[in-house]
Amino acid sequence: MNLRLRIWRQPGPAAEGALTSYDITGVSPDMSFLEMLDTLNEQLAERGEEPVAFDHDCREGVCGACGMVINGQAHGPERTTACQLHMRHFADGDTIVVEPWRAAAFPVLRDLVVDRGALDRIIGAGGYVTAPTGSAPEAHATPVPKESAETAFENAECIGCGACVAACPNGSAMLFTAAKVVHLGELPQGAPERDSRVLDMVGQMDTEGFGGCTNTGECATACPKGVPLPSIAAMNRDYLRAVRRGGGR
Amino acid sequence: METALPTVLGMALATRTDRRPSPARLLWRSTIGKKAVMAVTGLIMLLYLVSHLLGNLKVFAGPDEMNGYAHWLRTVGEPFLGHEWFVWLARCVLLAAVGLHGVSAYQLSRRDLAARPVPYAARRRATARDSYATRTMRWGGVILALFLVWHILDLTTGTVNPRGRAGHPYENIVATFSTWYGNAIYVVAMLALGLHVRHGFWSAAQTLGVNRPRRERALKATANALALVLTAGFLSIPLAVMTGVVS
């Protein structure tokens, strides 16, 4: 396959960026999107040009490191991560536009790499269980109803890639925050801090400059892990209850 | 992990001593709280619209019925309430609802737009979930706010009404819908209203945490039904005047 790529190139956080066109040859339909970028970088290096910087780690769709907006869609046309998106979903001769996640809370560091520290700070504000629990407890020590376990797991699948923020027209981190709030709030270990957790995490989310939720549903459509939209309703429910109760402290 | 643990404990101990702001302040400062304000005020306005529609449909029963109803509205609660007290009470509640709804929408919109300072170069494909109603909430709201001003000047104060006689709503309604601009403004506003209610009702349910996976379909169906009934119901009046059913 031969493709034309239009990739966002930006040398540094404060530098001006622009979309730059590259023609790439010899792309196999079995390559992942990241392998295709590797191939491009090899070709760029051979020509003595600066390779395209992009985040990546596990390359098997579980770590959440990779992420880019491909033709206007977070992680591209398939509902998966960019590393698990294969070139067979594109046609020979296609022009593909590749941009970094766009959000005020995600400053571009270089090319397609953005600083997602805002998400870490939301987790740091309360996305944990305070009690030190040591190693993994025995599975049946604390019984969890099946429905709660399933809801918690569905939300625990979040890999923090930031696609929800990138896809949201408001650059909102509601789905990300909701995934953690619902995951921990649903389990007995997380229940004691349920009120303070949701208030602290939402407070941090607002401080980071993410937008609000207008219920467009773009986040849940883009989420490679299928965190459902009703999780946002569940977080809203938790938040409003926590405010009524006076914040759990 | 060994080194991270004391930091986590230290944070938890440190945050335990600080006080949270009052619930009202907490709500007004947070995005979720402001959305909740929008949801509640939106539902108040929606409730009013349903009763407003039921009242307006009396236009089909003739001038005596319609004008009698308008007169009765001013006597509700008497002798406990004074003349027109009920109407003014309702107006105060509605004014507060409109004001809070608008201010919240403005502040949230500014925040939302600032959160995506650099737009995407590639146009994103509209997904099934991102409907026309969702995308037109902001400008649709502005259209509705402008219409509200026109509507009050037209049929409450009678300032811009071609007839504008106080205490004769039936004749005023016929007069305004006998002009092309009166009809045009009204039709555009009612279409905007339908779209606004369609996304707004479901959005309010989501914001107030009423939505759950198994309720999603029922809530969306209710939103669509409400939007359709309100738009069709309100539009039936200018249509009746235009076709001569009401004259």
Automatic annotation (TrEMBL), chain A:
SUPFAM superfamilies with a match to the protein in the record: 2Fe-2S ferredoxin-like, alpha-helical ferredoxin
Iron-sulfur among keywords: yes
Keyword match Iron: yes
Keywords tagged on the record: Iron, Iron-sulfur, Metal-binding
Domain of life: Bacteria
Alphabetized InterPro entries for the sequence: 2Fe-2S_ferredoxin-like_sf, 2Fe2S_fd_BS, 4Fe4S_Fe-S-bd, 4Fe4S_Fe_S_CS, Beta-grasp_dom_sf, Helical_ferredxn, SDH/FRD_Iron-Sulfur, Succ_DH/fum_Rdtase_N
Gene3D superfamilies, per database record: 3.10.20.30, Alpha-helical ferredoxin
GO BP, one annotated term: respiratory electron transport chain
Every 4Fe-4S ferredoxin-type domain range: 149-179
Cofactor entry: [3Fe-4S] cluster; [2Fe-2S] cluster
Molecular function GO labels: 2 iron, 2 sulfur cluster binding; electron transfer activity; metal ion binding
Family matches, as Pfam families: Fer2_3, Fer4_7
Family listed: Belongs to the succinate dehydrogenase/fumarate reductase iron-sulfur protein family.
Protein known as: Succinate dehydrogenase
